[in-house]
């Protein structure tokens, strides 16, 4: 790499290749009072990229509620924190690794997992669970199958090796993701509140420590690269791929947690080196505390020879952390990390002014105001335009359910509906021996050891709904997550999110972003689930075609007593069956629409937040008063699928008699649950919910009678088809 | 019949945690004179002679399947076996 | 008497084992670091937990077997005292030649984590005396390299000496003769791929694993 | 300085599932003339010259660490580099 002179950078507009506009470059000049040199231009390009500065999304993120009575830390740190009582708190965050996964799925997914784990332990929390959210192209494409296989392997291998259970996730398959698949990971940690850490470097003379793996030329410009669109040509010219080293991360994690737990007195701040590596971690730590720093790049552990400052600062080599340590305690830190076979190197000191100064080979190679780098990035509100497709007639698609049993069998084998067991059995979901509800039910449940409490967690988003109506779709994403938490016996606490969208320069995409975040904000207010952390991934386009708007919602809920833990599977024969919530003819955007017409079109059905909240309350109360044996939320595929799924685990059948057309069994009206209730609680349950029984559990068949068509299915046969469909289609 | 050997390693700039782990272990076993270790993959293939050019075939197998050209590089050796083919 | 849980760099089922010993079996567990050269004096049994020692980048267990503590573990085993290796622990014990054979990559090449039904083939060992002969038990597996291999003559020996303790009812990894767990000739060193520490509480889905631990813990208490 | 290359594969009698998977994939890519595939490990080591015998050293590294002699076999090549050592 040739380091151009400042004049050459200006003349050749090098900054444009790095994603800075001319106006932004002018602003840098103005802030510095001179032309930036090569290194400095690189620092600004990275720090002012969408990925680091959220310059296009910040105004929209402001809509999110971020505070609440139990919220100890909202967005802005490595991860958000929520008090769960007894002096403990839950910490969680989600992160996207879409572009790296598209290029190199195994390592892209693995390093995505590694990165999000670092965010959690940098807060002083011990990671207790991982979840994912995966969106790929249709399964008829060989490359897509390869991407899925490798992505799943990468997620699994990293989590399995480091010893964090991967307990849940979601997966959809749509053509729009073929060239730009999405890989989002979410990590949840547990914290003793006293240990809460901040990523700040304060106090002149304090030491900056680099710990973990050496720096190489991998992932240079990763942040910039994540802030640009994809096309065929770029495919070949990727900067070096990052390789994950979960063993190194395990050692770094144990060392950092030891430092935080047992040496808090000497630790001033800690932050992981994620996007834009050394520059973003160090500059953010300084800016947050209002201090500058001197860094000596000669001391940065290096894996390759001859790295220039630009490369050292922007490398995204994995498994590295930055610490600020009280002066005088260098030896203690070095010793501690050596105990964990990990390198800790002092690379700089905190300054009392706000200058951020880099030295190499005895020369100053960059000297900028740290606030300029971190806080002065421009913020844009882009033009937005309502896409024409949103004004389609509601004109109804009516499913054909005349061959009811066949239709249900086909729906059960759609990849989005079919069991994900062939995926999640590649994840160690049990390590740490706290997983009391394994993948396969609505939300995964992790007990809090030593208490009678547990945490429920889920990831959700239905991009089809957002495609038809980004505003309501945004509301539904949050509502569905909450529904899954409630169905598992929990009280929703808060959410993290990954906003995966196309290019914000496209007014129609910007409109989607605006509307989706608006909808999410409204839903978060309704359920009192503030947004405590998140991540934005824009420019998800391939050859000019944007993905569906895909805001992944990761929600955690508190289960206040282990007695409330509830799963979706039927437990006994002879229990009564109920649907909580009203069913309507809601078919646009549904699985059955896609299956029978090959399209997603029309006006999305109505959705009402208040109804949703009311129904969730009823179910919550029913669980807490011990009235139910199982609860399953009704989502993709509708009532028929929800009931079928409930029969599978224990192979207990059901007989239903519903007063509606058979096609409505596949309606995806929101705000509904299937509940099984022991006969002894019939009166109490009906009094509480006002619901009428629609059948009962028992036998080895699933029998449904409707106003027009009836069906009968052998549970074992249906289960086998549902269970094996995905693995089959992956072959 | 050809006997083909393919060697695949990470490109020079890519982190090789496996090689590092082996190096550390060798040092611990007192082989301190080991300066560097790269761990890669090794394939032995037996390939029937056909009308097609064997070099081109192997080249294609390497780029299509045996290596991940994003991060790995490969070399190979082709030896024609003189035994009579069954 | 203490129960020594050996910790290698990267072990990650160490705490799981610790909790079962302390909270379910009510005995005293103690962590022993891989850099130690001697086990504490009053150790009743050595447990080598699962996880990924040194990342298992070369071969599972290959590097761990050189850890300083392993010399004393061999001595301990040589004295006929109980040593149990679970998952990565099993891999380490085979690499250290405390158990015959070795563990290859799963035949289908994928990691597999699931509930697993096992048959008790020999309930006469220190690790299985709480089971019925031929009993079906549920203990989950979670591994990528659980495919047990040994040569013909070793297999014959394992059979002749009744060293095969546990087999899979449905083989999840390609293991020779469906082997899930074996003991050494003397019967005091056991290795198994399934995770009994994950089947030691009802809330985690069962307690068949707990009985495996009880087998040798009660043995120890009898000997006292 | 020596450049040493070590090749490790499963013993011939042991089924090599990775090799089998590669063979199947190659067949699917229409390389149907591939008769067999073995997948193994490949190490490149740079070893400093010392008083000790290099062959013995490499032999020992192979049996102690790089292979599990229960199930794997190995071969190696040692090349002495003629460049002046720094
Ligand atoms: N990619 C994945 N990784 C892990 N678990 C998954 C994945 N996809 C789905 N699951 C699990 O499969 C079950 C069903 O998933 P899903 O159909 O998305 O549930 P819901 O519709 O209730 O949100 C859940 O327990 C979920 O956690
Ligand atoms: Mg659900």
UniProtKB/TrEMBL annotation, chains B, D:
InterPro entries from the UniProt entry? PurS, PurS-like_sf
Similarity comment: Belongs to the PurS family.
User: One Pfam family for this entry, by name?
Assistant: PurS
Catalyses which reaction?
Answer: N(2)-formyl-N(1)-(5-phospho-beta-D-ribosyl)glycinamide + L-glutamine + ATP + H2O = 2-formamido-N(1)-(5-O-phospho-beta-D-ribosyl)acetamidine + L-glutamate + ADP + phosphate + H(+)
Pathway listed: Purine metabolism; IMP biosynthesis via de novo pathway; 5-amino-1-(5-phospho-D-ribosyl)imidazole from N(2)-formyl-N(1)-(5-phospho-D-ribosyl)glycinamide: step 1/2
Keywords (A to Z) from UniProt: ATP-binding, Cytoplasm, Ligase, Nucleotide-binding, Purine biosynthesis
Q: Name one GO molecular function term.
A: ATP binding
Q: What highest taxon heads this organism's lineage?
A: Bacteria
Q: Which GO terms describe its cellular component?
A: cytoplasm
What Enzyme Commission number(s) does the record list for this chain?
Answer: 6.3.5.3
NCBIfam families xrefs: phosphoribosylformylglycinamidine synthase subunit PurS, PRK05974.1
Origin species: Paucilactobacillus nenjiangensis
Protein name in the entry: Phosphoribosylformylglycinamidine synthase subunit PurS
């Amino acid at each position: 790499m040739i380091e151009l002179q400042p004049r050459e950078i200006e003349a050749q507009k090098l900054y444009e290749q790095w994603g800075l506009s001319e106006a932004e470059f002018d602003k840098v000049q103005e802030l510095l009072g001179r032309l930036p040199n090569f290194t400095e231009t690189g620092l600004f390009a990275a720090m002012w990229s969408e990925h680091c500065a959220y310059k296009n999304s910040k105004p929209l993120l402001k809509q999110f509620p971020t505070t609440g009575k139990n919220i100890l830390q909202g967005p802005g740190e490595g991860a958000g924190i929520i008090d769960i009582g007894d002096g403990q708190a839950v910490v969680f965050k989600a992160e996207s690794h879409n572009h790296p996964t598209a290029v190199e799925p195994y390592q892209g997914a693995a390093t995505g997992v590694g990165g999000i784990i670092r965010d959690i332990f940098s807060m002083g929390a011990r990671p207790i669970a991982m979840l994912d959210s995966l969106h790929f192209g249709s399964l008829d494409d060989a490359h897509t199958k390869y991407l899925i296989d490798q992505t799943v392997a990468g997620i699994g291998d990293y989590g399995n090796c480091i010893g964090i259970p991967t307990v849940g996730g979601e997966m959809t398959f749509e053509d729009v993701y073929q060239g730009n698949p999405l890989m989002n990971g979410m990590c949840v940690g547990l914290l003793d509140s006293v240990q809460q850490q901040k990523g700040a470097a304060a106090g002149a003379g304090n030491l900056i420590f680099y710990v973990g793996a050496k720096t190489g030329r991998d992932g240079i410009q990763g942040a910039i690269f994540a802030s640009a669109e994809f096309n065929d040509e770029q495919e070949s010219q990727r900067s070096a791929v990052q390789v994950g080293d979960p063993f190194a991360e395990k050692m770094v994690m144990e060392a950092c947690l030891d430092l935080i737990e047992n040496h808090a007195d000497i630790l001033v701040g800690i932050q992981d080196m994620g996007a834009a590596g050394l520059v973003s971690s160090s500059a953010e730590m300084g800016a947050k505390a209002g201090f500058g720093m001197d860094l000596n790049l000669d001391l940065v552990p290096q894996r390759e020879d001859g790295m220039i400052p630009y490369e050292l600062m922007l490398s995204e080599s994995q498994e590295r952390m930055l610490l600020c340590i009280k002066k005088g305690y260098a030896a203690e830190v070095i010793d501690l990390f050596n105990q964990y076979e990990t390198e800790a190197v002092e690379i700089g000191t905190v300054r009392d002014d706000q200058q951020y100064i880099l030295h190499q080979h005895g020369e100053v190679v960059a000297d900028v105001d740290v606030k300029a780098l971190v806080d002065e990035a421009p913020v844009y509100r882009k033009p937005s335009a309502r896409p024409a497709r949103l004004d389609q007639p509601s004109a109804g698609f009516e499913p054909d359910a005349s061959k009811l049993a066949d239709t249900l069998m086909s729906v059960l084998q759609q990849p989005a509906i079919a069991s994900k067991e062939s995926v999640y059995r590649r994840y160690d979901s049990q390590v740490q021996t706290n997983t009391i509800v394994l993948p396969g039910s609505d939300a995964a449940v992790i007990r809090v050891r030593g208490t009678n409490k547990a945490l429920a967690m889920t990831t959700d988003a239905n991009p089809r709904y957002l495609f038809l109506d980004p505003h309501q779709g945004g509301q539904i994403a949050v509502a569905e997550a909450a529904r899954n938490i409630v169905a598992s016996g929990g009280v929703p606490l808060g959410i993290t999110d990954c906003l995966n969208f196309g290019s914000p320069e496209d007014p129609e995409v910007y409109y989607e972003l605006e509307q989706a975040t608006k909808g999410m904000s409204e839903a978060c207010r309704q359920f009192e689930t503030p947004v405590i952390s998140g991540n934005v991934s824009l420019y998800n386009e391939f050859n000019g075609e944007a993905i569906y708007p895909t805001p992944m919602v990761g929600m955690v809920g508190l289960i206040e007593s282990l007695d409330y833990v509830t799963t979706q599977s039927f437990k006994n024969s002879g229990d009564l069956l109920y649907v909580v919530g009203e069913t309507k003819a809601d078919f646009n955007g549904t699985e059955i629409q896609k299956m029978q017409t090959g399209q997603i079109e029309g006006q999305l059905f109505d959705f009402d937040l208040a109804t949703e909240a009311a129904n969730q309350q009823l179910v919550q109360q029913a669980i807490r008063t011990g009235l139910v044996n199982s609860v399953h939320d009704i989502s993709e595929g509708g009532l028929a699928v929800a009931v079928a799924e409930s029969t599978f685990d224990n192979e207990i059948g059901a007989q239903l008699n519903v007063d509606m057309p058979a096609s409505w069994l596949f309606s995806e009206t929101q705000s509904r649950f299937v509940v099984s209730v022991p006969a002894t609680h019939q009166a109490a349950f009906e009094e509480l919910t006002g619901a009428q029984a629609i059948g009962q559990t028992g036998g080895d068949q699933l029998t449904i009678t409707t106003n027009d068509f009836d069906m009968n299915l052998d549970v074992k046969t249906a289960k086998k088809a549902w269970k094996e469909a995905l693995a089959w289609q992956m072959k | 019949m050809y006997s083909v050997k393919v060697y695949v390693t990470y490109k020079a700039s890519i982190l090789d945690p496996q090689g590092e782990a082996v190096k550390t272990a060798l040092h611990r076993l007192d082989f301190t004179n080991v300066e560097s270790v790269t761990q890669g993959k090794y394939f032995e293939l037996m390939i029937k002679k056909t009308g097609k050019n064997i070099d081109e075939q192997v080249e294609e197998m390497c780029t299509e399947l045996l290596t991940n050209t994003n991060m790995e590089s490969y070399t190979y050796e082709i030896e024609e076996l003189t035994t009579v083919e069954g | 008497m203490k129960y020594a849980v050996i910790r290698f760099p990267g072990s990650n089922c160490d705490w799981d084992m610790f909790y079962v010993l302390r909270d379910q079996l009510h005995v005293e567990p103690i962590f022993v670091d891989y850099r130690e050269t001697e086990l504490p004096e009053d150790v009743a049994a050595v447990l080598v937990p699962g996880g990924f020692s040194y990342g298992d980048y070369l071969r599972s267990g290959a590097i761990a077997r050189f850890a300083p503590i392993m010399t004393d573990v061999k001595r301990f085993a040589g004295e006929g005292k109980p040593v149990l290796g679970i998952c990565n622990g099993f891999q380490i014990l085979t690499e250290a030649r405390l158990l015959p054979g070795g563990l290859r990559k799963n035949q289908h090449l994928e990691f597999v984590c699931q509930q697993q039904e096992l048959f008790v083939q020999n309930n006469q060992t220190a690790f299985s005396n709480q089971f019925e002969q031929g009993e079906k038990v549920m203990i989950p597996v979670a591994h990528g390299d659980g495919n047990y291999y040994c040569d013909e003559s070793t297999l014959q020996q394992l059979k002749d000496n009744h060293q095969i303790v546990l087999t899979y009812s449905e083989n999840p990894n390609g293991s020779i003769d469906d082997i899930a767990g074996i003991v050494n000739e003397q019967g005091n060193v056991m290795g198994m791929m399934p995770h009994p520490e994950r089947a030691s509480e009802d809330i985690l889905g069962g307690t068949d694993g707990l009985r495996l631990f009880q087998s040798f813990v009660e043995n120890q208490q009898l000997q006292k």
